[in-house]
Amino acid sequence: QVQLVESGGGLVQAGGSLRLSCATSGRTFGRPVMGWFRQAPGKEREFVASMWWSLGSTQYADSVKGRFTISRDNAKNALFLQMSSLKPEDTAVYYCAAGSDSSTWSHWGQGTQVTVSS
Question: Which residue ranges in the chain fall short of pLDDT 70?
């Protein structure tokens, strides 16, 4: 069973930065892609960024390109999301996810709240 635990959320002013972490445990074999999603109040969950674990290739939502960076630490089985130039519209609960491909996400963390004040 794959377990994902996010951390690093908090309150930050617009223009600031935060780094989210996702600690993974359990069997990750067969789940080669990992990513970040977010859900703002009253809105559907949306894709933020993803990374193919072995290849390191990345994909970003247009709304975060140039501001967010997804990365990994293979030795620690950890996934990160460096968020810079944060905007109030980035306010959401951010979720770490693991999947078998970029459209099939089978495991989710509990989420971490990010609040950006104007």
Answer: 28-30
- How far apart are alpha carbons 79 and 31 in whole angstroms? 13
Model confidence pLDDT, tens digit, residues 14-29? 999 999 999 988 876 5
Query: What DSSP designation does 95 have?
Result: E
Q: What are phi and psi of 89, to 5 degrees?
A: -75, -5
Tokens representing residue 83 in the block: 């968020």
Query: CA 49, CA 62: separation in Å to the nearest integer?
Result: 10
Between CA 71 and CA 91 the distance in angstroms is 21
Q: C-alpha angle 6/12/14, rounded to 5°? A: 125
In the numeric block, which tokens belong to residue 38? 């977010």
